[in-house]
Amino acid sequence: MNILSLGAGVQSTTLLLMAGHGEFETKPDYAIFADTGWEPQATYEHLEWLERESTKLGIPVIRTAKGNIHDDLISGSRNQSRTANMPFYVEHDGEKAIIPRGCTGEYKIEAVNKKVRELLGYQKRQRIPPKSVTKWMGISSDEIYRAKTTGVNAWEVLRYPLIEKGMSRLDCMNWLARNGYNVPPKSACIGCPFHSDRTWLEMKRNDPEAFKEAVEFERVIHQHGLRGMKGKLYLHKSCRPLDQVNLNEDQMDMFDDGFLNECDGMCGV
Ligand code: SF4
């Protein structure tokens, strides 16, 4: 089985549409989108369009979800119960750090793997033969360091078709334009601490409701903390409340992109 891991950003959207246009020797059987439940409205609108387009091109898109990352963390923080943590910044005894991230693994990778298992007809913990699934990943050549050579399971083989074709993110955008498609919005959780200042600022200006949600989310996490975690938690690397951060409106580095440095190929592509 061939599965495309769909993040619904520029790269995985391009990969899906290219596959639908027959630009690879085979097509994925399915594209799977793992929904964290807290993407911007623009991403959900893009996803709805992409589902229709992809179905026309012969590749069904399946949505799956482990839960709602926003609601799960709010309730985990209030009740001090276990959570799959976002990579929050923490300040403790005057030291700043970032906490280990569990969200991509649980809300993205495991959610997709669970759906693959279901599609293959295997029960939980039932052994799937090695290399049963080729997972297409939308990593472009300029982000090659996000590509891993092996998957977490023996039953999967990871494939990077954009890298095989030497395509960068810009090449993806050019391919979309040549083929009459719009460039999708960035896909990532609204309150992801990996957002660059540019992303936060764009959200503050263009999607104030989402920005407000992130500020309120941070307020709760900051106030109640997370189980087993010492120190105060923040969404911004400055370890200041998001609505008080100076987002450098006049001096933004237009090429600054937190995901380029931090994420491992499931979020933001
Ligand atoms: S976008 Fe950020 S918060 Fe959401 S799952 Fe990925 S790393 Fe976690």
Structure description:
The structure is a single chain. The chain has 269 residues and is α/β, with parallel strands linked by helices. It has one domain (2-244): Rossmann fold (3-Layer(aba) Sandwich). It has helices at residues 10-20, 41-56, 69-79, 103-120, 161-164, 169-178, 197-206, 208-224, 258-262, and strands at residues 2-6, 30-34, 61-64, 89-92, 95-98, 133-137, 156-159, 232-234. The strands form 2 sheets. The chain has a 5-stranded parallel sheet, sandwiched between helices. A 3-stranded antiparallel sheet has the order 5-4-8. The longest helix is centred in the middle third of the chain and has 18 residues, at 103-120. It is globular. Bound molecules: iron/sulfur cluster (SF4).
The fourth-level CATH homologous superfamily is: HUPs
Helix content: 25-40%
General shape: globular
Based on helices, strands and strand pairing, what is the structural class? Answer: alpha/beta
Order of helices and strands: EHEHEHEEHEEHHHHEH
What would you call the quaternary organization? single chain
Distance between the termini: 22 Å
